[in-house]
Structures are given as structure tokens and as C-alpha cells.
Amino acid sequence: MNDIDAWVWWLVGAAALGIPLVVTAMPEFGMFAVGAVAGAIVAGLGFGAVAQVLVFIVVSVALIAVVRPIAARHSAQRPQFATGVDALRGKQAVVLERVDGSGGRIKLAGEIWSARALDSDRAYEVGQEVDVVEIEGATAIVI
């Protein structure tokens, strides 16, 4: 152990902390790994063990205190733009074949979709504009 410098041990520790980061996807392990890299830098500059441990603790705690709340805030936000079938809700479509409670066809976003009326007693005729309220599989539910 005396033959290996302290900064190498800090880098080994950083790599060891990187493994659970990848396996568990817990960003806290990455923050500890960055703290270990900071400890390696301090060790490489020739500072003692106390300074190395203090830098490791300060950097790790600072990252957790600053980055973690920002990351939590970002992960809680919904995407600003709807994509896929979510983007089709609320769009208008044109009836191509009569749409009623049992089915029909519409042109939605440039594509032909099977459609069904939300209200089974209601029917929409060819050329009429309808609003998409839901997508169930490959069928648009319209009003």
C-alpha cells in the first residue's frame, strides 16, 4: 500500500462509486465520485490526509446540496411539448367515412385513422370536422 500514492486510491474510490451510479441510477453516487476526484487532486498537489478527506466531504456535500434539488425539480416537470399520440389529443380531423359509435374513418394530422364517436348515439358525416378527445390503440375517439 505504501508504493501506491494516495491520489491513485482516491481515483480507485471514484471508479468504485461510479459502478453503483450506473447500476442503480442514483446520482448521489456520482456526486460522491466527483468528491473522490477532488480528493485525488488535493492528494496529487501534496496535501495531507486530513485536507483530502475534508475536500472530499465538502465537495460531495456541496454537490448534493446544490445539484440534487435542481435535478429533482427538473425530473418533476412534464415535457413542454406533447409527442406521439399525446400530441393528437385536442386536434381537429375531417371525417372520411361516417363515424358513429361502432366506427368510421377520419383524416388526422395528414394520416387516415379509424375513429369512433365518444357518444355512441352520435354520428358524424363525411366532410364534417371533429375533435379528437382520446386515442385508444389505433382508434381516435372523437366528438
Commentary on this structure:
By secondary structure, the chain is of the alpha+beta class. A hairpin with a 2-residue loop joins strand 2 (about 105-110) and strand 3. It has helices at about 5-25, 25-45, 50-75; strands at about 90-100, 105-110, 110-115, 130-135, 140. The chain is built from three helices and five strands, in the order αααβββββ.
Keywords:
single chain; 143 residues; alpha+beta; 5-stranded mixed β-barrel; 3 helices; 5 strands; 45% helix
Gist?
This protein is an alpha+beta fold and 143 residues long. It has helices spanning 6-24, 27-44, 49-76; strands spanning 92-100, 103-108, 111-117, 129-136, 139-142.
